[in-house]
Amino acid sequence: MVAKAYAFAEKKHAGQKRKTGEPYFNHPIAAATQLLKWGLDEETIAAGLLHDVLEDTETTPEEIEKEFGEKITAIVKGVSKIGKIKYRGKEAQAELLRKMMLSLSDDVRTVFVKLADRLHNMKTLGALPVQKQKRIALETAEIYAPLAYRLGMRELSGELEDLAFPFIDPRNHEMILKLVEKYYGKRERYLLKVKPIIEEALFRGGINEYEISFRAKKYYSLFKKLKKYGMEIENIYDLVAFRIIAPTLEKCYTTLGIIHSLWPPVPGRIKDYIANPKPNGYRSLHTTVFCLDGKITEFQIRTKEMHEEAENGIAAHWIYKRAGEFNKIKYKNLSQLSKEAEWVRKTEKQKTDFKSAEGFINALKVDFFKDRIYAITPKGEVIDLPAKATPVDFAYKVHSLLGHETVGARVNGKITPLNFKLNSGDIVEILRQKGKKPSKDWLGFVATESAKDHIKNYLNKKERIKN
Ligand code: MN
Questions:
Q1: Rg of the chain's alpha carbons, rounded to an integer?
Q2: How do residues 429-462 score in pLDDT, each as one tens digit?
Q3: How far is the CA of 59 from the centre of ligand 1 (A)?
Q4: Is the pTM higher than 0.70?
Q5: Mind listing the pLDDT tens digit for each residue in 169-207?
Q6: Which is the catalytic residue, given 56, 65, 67, 353?
Q7: CA of 80 to the centre of ligand 1 (A)
Q8: How far apart are CA 427 and CA 391, in angstroms?
Q9: Residues 392, 395, 399, 400, Cα dihedral to 10°
Q10: CA dist 111 to 58, 146, 265, Å?
Q11: Rounded to 5 degrees, what are φ and ψ at 379?
């Protein structure tokens, strides 16, 4: 199927050129290569190859459906639909996010293809006119990067931000580059001095299989943090952090103990995201210690599985879950493919069960949508909520005062009752009335603990005043 999509798209894009001057077909190949790197299935890779034929060639959806079936057609159509919304300010942002959330619940692979498409476009953004560069870079930083982050694809999210940064804010980008150049070397020399001390302690603690590395903070994320901390780079403790990959979950905690026996932790900076994962599924132990010579240093400790998940999110999660049930299916017609198409040959080695596209989507839906919904504020901010959440939960999540003062809600432009069950992709506008107080009845339908707490706290306070 991948070979067929390759030939089909190559023919359709024949003669077209990108703004960079290279053949247009290089772009779908790049997108498909990325999808392959994320370990996705053959339908997604085929859709990646075909993702621009509707938009940029004479191809009709019927033609794709006839050749490649309903599912691939749906993905390609979805990608074209998302591509038509242009980022112009907050309203378009909310609409774009809504469309993406909806395609997420339809077939999450649509969003994977769109992300792969955007990543390659960002890598070649320099070839576009300046005005367009800025719009696309902003859209990338404000929509695609946060979306990737929510899907747990942290590596991609950071990469998208760093690609956008020089186009959004060239002066600060320049400033960060200089700053990092100055501090990074110093920091790295220090960590190299610390490393043998850790290795020795781990060895004595009976931890033999592990990996230890440094991870440098990405530029844009560093810039955001600097802004938060008054531009003082000395206050950014995780500029370069240690990362230890431990063999098992238990050994993560043992490793944490060993680190703390070497150097005292900074109070309030130990974070157990293994026991309490972040909403996007991120798992790891973080600690910050007064390290060698009293220098404050951050450590991240996790297993290999957690690490893959942290970098590649739900895609990695799915691959791990299925690792036990792989069937090796080999392509027979691979040899017919163009020799330059190195990535296609790699599919042969990929231990992916291509028959399980269905299972793949279901696994993603179960993992990603069973327990969470993602609703959107009119300004385009995504609010992460548990299933069955209502506008009241939404309001409390935005701000406790907004929760208290809620009198009604408009969901996708329609007035809804306060116990309405929200869906992913809903744009929720809370109608408030100053001085309005929460009602006891709300306790009967709110889904979040935090909303319950806020309401109960208010009611208890009222009770106390009365007595
Ligand atoms: Mn494209």
A1: 25
A2: 999 999 899 999 999 999 988 899 899 989 888 7
A3: 15
A4: no
A5: 999 999 999 888 888 888 888 889 999 999 999 999 988
A6: 56
A7: 9
A8: 10
A9: -20
A10: 24, 13, 40
A11: -90, 0
Choosing from 10, 41, 42, 55, the catalytic residue is 55
- CB–CB of 285/256 below 8 Å? yes
Q: Which of 377, 401, 417 is nearest to 455 (CA)?
A: 401
**Ligand 1 centre and the CA of 116: distance in Å?**
9
Amino acid at 437: K
55 is catalytic: yes
Q: Identify whether the C-beta of residue 206 lies closer than 8 Å to the C-beta of residue 259.
A: no
Sole residue written with tokens 């779908």: 28
Rounded to the nearest angstrom, the distance between the alpha carbon of 121 and the centre of ligand 1 is 7
CA of 48 to the centre of ligand 1 (A): 9
| The token pair that represents 459 in the structure block | 């009611």
